[in-house]
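Hi V.,

You were right to ask for the full record rather than a summary. Here it is.
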Amino acid sequence: MNTDQVTQPLEDAPKKLTLKGIPVDPNLRILGVATLVNTFGNGALMATSALYFTLVVGLRPTQLALAVSAGAFAGLLAQVPAGHLADLRGPRRVLQTLTFGAGLALLGLLFARSVWALVAVMAVFAVFDRGAQAVRNGYVARLAEGGQGVQFKAYLRAVTNVGISLGALSGGLALWVDQGWAYLAVFALDAATCMVTSIWLGRLPHIAPAAPRRSGEPRMAVLHDLPFVVITVLSGVTAMHFVVIELALPLWIVKDTSAPKSLVAIILMINTICVALFQVRLTRNIDRVRPSSRAMARSGFWIAGGFALIAFASGQSMWPAIAFLCAGALVHVVGEMIGSGGQWGVQMGLAPRERQGQYQGFAGVGFSLSQMVGPTLVILLCIQWGRAGWFVMGGLIVIASLLMVPASSWALRSREHYGVLTHSG
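Predicted structure:
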């Protein structure tokens, strides 16, 4: 890693984030609008794509899963190079290019009629989309100095949930029409939102490229930063709770509880509304590495507690089962919000200032790995093992979240040893 890299010191008192719900910082306002527009299209796509390719095109669910996995793998490979490119060329133009490229790739969905065509489209789209996310995360870390990086991320995540929810409602119109042209219109809409977002992002300020590497400095410094690699792996383990909620919980409700199937949608609404309302508030005092790592440790117990309540829904009559499931969802989402803020604080705080693109790109690898490895493990534990598996899953997340504290301390010591100052300690 670059041992001469020094970051800007934090201000003692972070500035107010919003005024009547509107970001005070003009750059955050630009990012907020871009996020809302882009995630609106994504939400519409998420609500319709699986049904279109299985019911209209005629692909088998296993073929659809293959395309999704191919996209996840391609996106994983793209994140670090995209972040590194942003460091070298300046993040704004790279972010615009990747976002526009994602829109062009989505147009391929209009013509995909076979599994291999869909695999190709999903892989190309993931390269641009995941690459853009990596660049955006690094860009936020560079823009939001003065201790506001976590708050910026929290605000954008709240906006993301609002955008996806509104987009899903729009996608519901296509489901109601249930005609091929309606689904294709949704795909075209998502492509258009990417292209419009790309143009809008041109309003962001230009950030100068990173200084050239010094003699002997590795090209991919993050890959040589062992503490950060360990933290990324631990973050990937904790991120499997997203897979549990998205994949295992719906199956658990339908197969192992007496709760109605419609509760799946209600729990999704609970999660979305809570994140939109409380994500910023629950991360307000999480801004330095050590407090952020302790927040992640606390979040593991909240998540495990939510899983325990969900597990006890099995074997209950309908109303107690509904109560356990809703209570579990509420407890879990508290841990989700605290843990997300803690993760952002650790990962942004440990990254050298002018290598944020590269480091945040690598940080995203942990989440991508959880999306690739998590489904098999989650189904094994939470569905095949039954109630006991939910406790085991919660235990794994608690262990990984607790290990974030010593791992973060190790990372800070390594930076002090080499004379590298981070955003926060």
